[in-house]
Design goal:
The protein is α+β, with helices and mostly antiparallel strands. The protein has ten helices and ten strands.
């Protein structure tokens, strides 16, 4: 940890010293690491520090090490800093996120010091969720989307999600020729033209959620791709990250119903909005959100396990709906 950053952090935390404990995770493509530090002489016991090296041009594990990819990643870290500094304090217990203590850029390094969610009681991770845990994730997303419904994503990605078409030209070029590739732009436009827009998490996979000990509460991390969009992109992506063995596909209709019930309840408490029209529009766009994500996978890693019969059925539904005349 750099000296100036540590001095600022000690002052903010009113702590005596910081002691390195462990590297929690290496950042994707070698851009840095996430570390846990023990805090001595303060009201909290530990913090998480995300250390990002902006000076290198790392090697992508799948070969996507173009300048376009590099610039997208650099921008994503600045947007994450913006999110924590300017937006995250608007989240509540229904869409819990980590508290930011300090965001600090020094030369070619960016540091984010945040609340340790493990210490705050969210110390469980789930890889094979039961339906109740999947519902918790959808409740978080519904509350998050309700909180930021209609907001302009100032300082964030204009279009949230790491796979959106405008930032993935290399992957699109690598797709096999076919209807999905030809219709990629039309699918993206359907989603971006939605009347009802919110702020998306942008990388709402199961691995980015932290559960409480009793698996009754949930918090989210990793906001590099937070930005505007239709909430169905988060929902489809979250469900895609749950293994088919968790049996969510057989319960998809019930899970979507649960998401919309929580969304509508949250919106009734916050803003006046045509809830029936919102639900109808987003339900109609659900298959397009799936097709948009599968388009990315088809170019990035065409053998990915998420390209299964269920996801391809959603693609077929979206492509079929594109052919139907407007009424």
């Amino acid at each position: 940890m750099k000296g100036q950053f540590e001095e600022k952090l000690l002052s903010i935390l009113r702590a005596e010293s910081l002691e390195f404990q462990e590297v929690i995770q290496e950042l994707w493509s070698g851009y840095g690491r996430i570390k846990r530090y023990q805090v001595n002489g303060a009201l909290i016991n530990s913090i998480i520090v995300k250390e990002i090296d902006l000076s290198t041009f790392p090697e992508h594990p799948r070969g996507w090490n173009t300048d376009h990819s590099h610039q997208r990643k650099l921008k994503s870290y600045q947007i994450e800093a913006n999110w924590y500094a300017q937006w995250s304090d608007r989240t509540d217990q229904n869409c819990r996120t980590a508290k930011l203590y300090l965001a600090d850029k020094q030369a070619d390094e960016l540091f984010l010091a945040m609340e340790d969610l493990d210490e705050s009681g969210f110390n469980h991770r789930v890889s094979m969720p039961i339906l109740e845990e999947i519902k918790l994730g959808l409740e978080w997303l519904a509350s998050f989307h309700a909180t930021f419904m209609g907001e302009k994503p100032k300082g964030l990605w204009e279009e949230g999600s790491y796979w959106h078409l405008a930032t993935r030209p290399d992957e699109w070029k690598d797709m096999y020729e076919g209807q999905l590739k030809n219709c990629a732009n039309s699918i993206a436009k359907k989603l971006s033209a939605a009347k009802f827009q919110t702020i998306l998490h942008g990388d709402a996979k199961l691995a980015n959620f932290c559960f409480s000990k009793e698996y009754q509460k949930i918090a989210a991390v990793d906001f590099q791709y937070v930005g505007g969009g239709c909430g169905m992109k988060d929902v489809a992506y979250f469900l895609s990250s749950c293994p088919p063995e968790s049996n969510w596909q057989a319960n998809e209709d019930a899970l979507l119903y649960h998401y919309f019930e929580v969304l509508k309840k949250s919106l009734r408490e916050k803003v006046h909005i045509d809830l029936a029209n919102l639900e109808q529009e987003w339900r109609d766009l659900y298959c397009f959100a799936w097709a948009d994500f599968v388009r990315f996978l088809k170019g990035w890693m065409p053998e990915h396990w998420k390209i299964d019969p269920h996801s391809m059925k959603k693609v077929e539904e979206a492509l079929s709906n594109l052919q139907q005349p407007s009424t």
